[in-house]
Amino acid sequence: MAAAHATRPVMAGLVPQPGPSGPVRDLNRSVCFLNWTMPGARDWIRAMADGGYRQFCPIAKGAEIVATRWTPLILRELMFGERSFNDIQRGVPLISRALLAERLRQLAHDGIVEKRARRGGKGHEWRLTPSGDALREVLAALGRWGLIYGRDRVTPDDHDSTVLMWALRRRVDRSLLPDRRVVLRFDLSGVPRCRTGLRLHWLVLEPDNVEVCYKDPGHPVDVIVTGEISALIAVYLGHASWSQATRRSLTVRGDREVARHMAAWLQLDKRVGYELPIVPSAA
């Protein structure tokens, strides 16, 4: 009788009742009403718990691979050219290293990425396979949709300055840089409370490398950008122009020549509207 009581469904609300020992925890018991109405329901439930939909629909098959948590962002980093484990995580800083490793292993199992030994034999790197590279259009379409229809979903909690700096690093057009090191410092307010220790950032620009620093790199600073992080994000997304932001929300101080050209170097002066290429084409 106790077992029957523990698995008795409440048909009106389709909510299982707790058994004598407390809240229902077992997956089969928590949705046990399906056992009464669907042949093979236990296998179906187990498949759902494993992330499968048990449908032949191509959308279902694609979603089983791409629509898991963090996976689109990992693919975004790979499509932007990040190859090392650490660089991928810098673009997705809130994912744990263990979960990132798990997601990469699963993507490798699904044939989306492959693990290659680095030249020189030290360590390894992650690369997209042809089937992974074919997802560029999918992520680009998702990005365009989010840029337009997800705009109102951006909240102050999303204003992660480390993600913004990593994104700006990728924007730099190194062909336009002068033949010397240029250092930009960003002092941003409005950063989420849990990230306030990372208000200051430095971009070190050189013709052959761009580096993001979270501590003072010790080089002379050419320009300091001060203001609300939301204003800089709006420029990055194309929701506001650089000239608008510098008139209203952002202050740029320092070397006048650098200040005049930095927007072009970071490609912040050409991204107004919905023209932002979320995912660049394959090299």
Question: What would you say about this model in short?
Answer:
The chain is built from 14 helices and nine strands. It has 283 residues and is of the alpha+beta class. It has three domains: 2-50, no CATH class; 63-134, Orthogonal Bundle (Arc Repressor Mutant, subunit A); 154-265, SCP2 sterol-binding domain (Nonspecific Lipid-transfer Protein, Chain A).
Descriptive account of the structure:
The chain has 283 residues and is an alpha+beta fold. The protein has three domains: 2-50, no CATH class; 63-134, Arc Repressor Mutant, subunit A, CATH 1.10.10; 154-265, SCP2 sterol-binding domain (Nonspecific Lipid-transfer Protein, Chain A). It has helices at 2-6, 27-30, 33-37, 41-49, 58-66, 71-79, 85-91, 97-109, 130-133, 136-149, 161-171, 229-237, 242-248, 256-265, and strands at residues 9-10, 15-16, 113-117, 124-128, 182-189, 200-206, 209-213, 223-228, 250-254. The strands form three sheets. Strands 7-6-5-8-9 form a five-stranded mixed beta sheet. A two-stranded antiparallel ribbon has the order 1-2. It has a two-stranded antiparallel ribbon with strand order 3-4. A hairpin with a 2-residue loop joins strand 6 (200-206) and strand 7 (209-213). Helix 6 (71-79) packs across helix 7. The chain starts with a helix and ends in an 18-residue tail after the last helix.
